[in-house]
């Protein structure tokens, strides 16, 4: 029987809680950040792992390939994926690929898939990364690969060379079917990821199934430059300014509540859409 | 003939009464067109949508492109994106804006790819730069950073817009708009996705994402029983209750109420935060609150430093105090 191939796209993102954060300017130093697997990519991986397990119970074989584009440091998440149950990992990494927008990211990911995994059955993506938060890479990758795609899956059932997907989008509860090969993005609340067994990551380091591929090996021409070739350009990045008065109220509960209504009763009643009597005096 | 300055807005009427994002974008487009020139146009696909066409004209659309056909009755991403691409290629608008609903976020990336142009996700503002280009302003890292993005060479300039970002124009029943009806192309692709069922269940609750008043509680509320007080306060204030992750994990409230990186982003007019420390994974999602009142025993908690009003006191006592004050003073 033919091996069923699942390819999961995973991205490394900065761990925001660990970010070197300048509380004065509200800016963060990305280059010093510690990396982690993007939470939505983890859900996509979990969906792949569960499909693999269900198939294994029926004696059917599945290969899970994880694919990532990012700096060399992103190797870490491939090892992590491997320790969770992925069979093979590929990191597309090259200075020339840095700074790609979603248009080029999906182009590069597709380029590898077409070249090296043309017989992929199911491609899985997260629905939205925690750093760039676009949700665009999945649909654009499907477009590049000329395969159909279903977004925001809450549940995927594999039925031969077809998937049945349940999803909840914009107040519609839908059941959709799609022939494979196809791409599915996983909803932010579905497929709660498992945690790696302690020591699991260690074992994963022993493997040769994780490789790094550069722009040349991908067959990109030498003038390729992701920043220049991306259709969108970032003009600047800033942190939203906080223009807070930061008034501090202290005292007994009664006293602070009285003060709150006296000074801010108008704001409160207007947001409530209800009038409050004598705003303040007596409360 | 349409010139290359028109601004198009994709009519997303799928969840119309819940989501008025198309009308909101039309309002902003009208404002942008004042400096770029060109017409504000809506584009509508489906079957029997005259009602929406009228609504778009009443809210600022000068022109509406309509493809009305029984074959378009149920939304299908491949069909709709094919049509959108075809229309853009034919009429060449300068800009195409789409609501960042799930419908919009599914269709827009595919249209952008087909048109080989850029797309900025979930914008919270749009401006025009001195060269007349669309500046797409979008948050990342849960609102901790804001990026200003342009599409220097490719056209159209495309962006999805976060619902609730702009204020819709007042309905003008006398507004006149041109309606351009187009026939379904003969070379439509065959849809590869089959819709087995699609059930519309509009959510009754406003939801914390849309509420004007949100009351969030953290571990500092102490227990599930004490946390319940927040529901009483929310009911009195017409608000919704949100929570931090430890609270959701402890089952004091359902996952729907989770505010933060792993949950929902909120943007109320007033946020009351009871017993919350203010970890970045949580505060990333409250950056858009207009006014924050934080209640915490610890004056140095991050949440207190982010607040407009920082109340140094016991969260439970202040909650009860506000409930009492409102009950005694509310005017019906
Ligand atoms: C990957 C990742 C994702 C995460 N995503 C989210 C997310 O989406 N949302 C989220 O909320 N968290 C998230 N977290 C968790 C987050 O880091 C914090 O742990 C969490 O927000 C803290 O919740 P808290 O403020 O309720 O609890 P604590 O941090 O324990 O704070 C309790 C606060 O209550 C105060 N307090 C105690 N008793 C009283 C009293 N009687 N009266 C008044 N004040 C009192 C204390 O001074 C303290 O400031 C995430 C973490 C990780 C690692
Ligand atoms: N650099 C990348 N490498 C691999 N997969 C990616 C990358 N960027 C995005 N993805 C995939 O696309 C999903 C959505 O990402 P985004 O469009 O950036 O929000 C992620 O959850 C991943 O599955």
Protein architecture, described:
The complex is a heterodimer of chains A (283) and B (332). The longest helix of chain A is centred in the last third of the chain and has 20 residues, at 253-272. The model of chain A is unreliable at 279-283 (pLDDT under 50). Chain A has two domains: 4-229, 3-Layer(aba) Sandwich (Rossmann fold); 253-282, no CATH class. Chain A has helices at residues 39-57, 75-84, 102-116, 137-145, 200-204, 226-229, 253-272, and strands spanning 4-9, 12-14, 21-22, 27-28, 35-37, 62-69, 88-92, 122-126, 149-158, 162-169, 172-179, 182-186, 210-213, 233-238, 247-250. With 283 residues, chain A is an alpha/beta fold. A nine-stranded mixed β-sheet of chain A has the order 11-10-9-12-8-1-6-7-13, sandwiched between helices. A two-stranded antiparallel sheet of chain A has the order 2-5. By secondary structure, chain B is of the alpha/beta class. In chain B, the strands form three sheets. A seven-stranded parallel β-sheet of chain B has the order 5-9-4-1-2-3-10, with helices on both faces. In chain B, α8 links the parallel β14 (270-274) and β15. The longest helix of chain B has 16 residues, at 21-36. The model of chain B has no long low-confidence stretch (mean pLDDT 91). Bound molecules: flavin-adenine dinucleotide and adenosine monophosphate. Residues 9-11, 38, 40-41, 44, 67-70, 102, 105, 109, 125-126, 128-129, 132-138 of chain A line the site of adenosine monophosphate (AMP). Adenosine monophosphate (AMP) is lined by residues 9-11, 38, 40-41, 44, 67-70, 102, 105, 109, 125-126, 128-129, 132-138 of chain A.
Helix-strand pattern of chain B? EHEHEHEHEEEEEEEEHHEHEHEHEH
Number of DSSP strands of chain B? 16
* Tally of individual domains of chain B: 2
Structural class of chain A: alpha/beta
Q: In the CATH scheme, what's the topology name of the largest domain in chain A?
A: Rossmann fold
Q: Any idea what the radius of gyration of chain B is? A: 23 Å
Order of helices and strands of chain A: EEEEEHEHEHEHEEEEHEHEEH
